[in-house]
Design goal:
The protein is of the alpha+beta class. It has 4 helices and 11 strands; from the N terminus they run E-H-E-E-H-E-E-H-E-E-H-E-E-E-E. It starts with 13 loop residues before the first strand and ends with a strand.
Length: 183
C-alpha cells in the first residue's frame, strides 16, 4: 500500500460520528449544509433508516483539522432533528463499507481477478469480454488492500459507499443523549 494518506483509513485526524436523527425530509440536506457553511470537511457520509421508521442514522467521517470535534457536535445539536450523537473510534466500533469496481480482465487475466475476489470473500457481479464487475464489503482497510491489488489489472471505475458503523456490543461508547449533555 502506498504511503499517501487515505481518506478511508484510520488517520488520527478523522473522527467517526453516528448521528441519530428524526426521519424527516430535508434532514440530510440540513446536516450537509451545516458542514458546508462551517467549512468542515466530510470524508465519508452514509445515511439510512434505522430499525425504527421514525429515525435515520447518519454515519459521518469528518476531518477534525477543519474544526474541533466538540464544535462539530455542538453545531449538530443545534439541528432540531438530531436526537443523539456518538463518537465511534475504530477500536470501539464494527465498521463496514461496500465497494463496487469494474476491473480490466482479459480472458487470460480473468481467472486471476476471480481468484483474488474469492480470496477477499467478494463477489463477481458481471462478466464482460474485457472486464468484470466485482463487489466487496468489509472494513475500510480490507477494501483499501483489495483496491491496491486490483490496480495491477486496471480499475476502470469504482464506487465506495462510505462507512457505516455501530458500537461493539462489549464496549461502552461516549454518547450525548440530550442537547449539549454527555452521558
Amino acid at each position: 500500500m502506498s504511503n499517501k494518506v487515505n481518506p478511508y483509513g484510520s488517520a488520527p485526524t478523522h473522527h467517526m460520528l453516528s448521528v441519530l436523527v428524526q426521519n424527516r425530509p430535508g434532514v440530510l440536506a440540513r446536516v450537509a449544509s451545516l458542514f458546508a457553511r462551517r467549512g468542515y470537511n466530510i470524508f465519508s457520509l452514509a445515511v439510512a433508516p434505522t430499525e425504527q421508521d421514525d429515525f435515520s442514522r447518519i454515519t459521518i467521517v469528518v476531518d477534525v483539522e477543519s474544526a474541533p470535534l466538540e464544535q462539530i457536535v455542538k453545531q449538530l445539536f443545534k439541528l432540531i432533528e438530531v436526537v443523539r450523537i456518538s463518537e465511534l473510534s475504530p477500536s470501539q466500533a464494527v465498521e463496514r463499507e461496500l465497494m463496487v469496481a469494474t476491473v480490466r480482465a482479459s480472458a487470460k487475466e480473468r481467472g486471476d481477478v476471480v481468484e483474488l475476489t474469492n480470496v477477499f470473500e467478494g463477489k463477481i457481479l458481471s462478466v464482460g469480454a474485457d472486464a468484470v464487475i466485482v463487489s466487496l464489503d468489509g472494513s475500510p482497510e480490507k477494501l483499501d488492500d483489495f483496491a491496491e491489488l486490483l490496480r495491477q489489472y486496471g480499475i476502470i471505475e469504482s464506487q465506495r459507499t462510505g462507512r457505516v458503523a455501530l458500537p461493539k456490543l462489549d464496549r461502552v461508547v461516549k454518547t450525548s443523549t440530550s442537547k449539549g449533555k454527555a452521558s
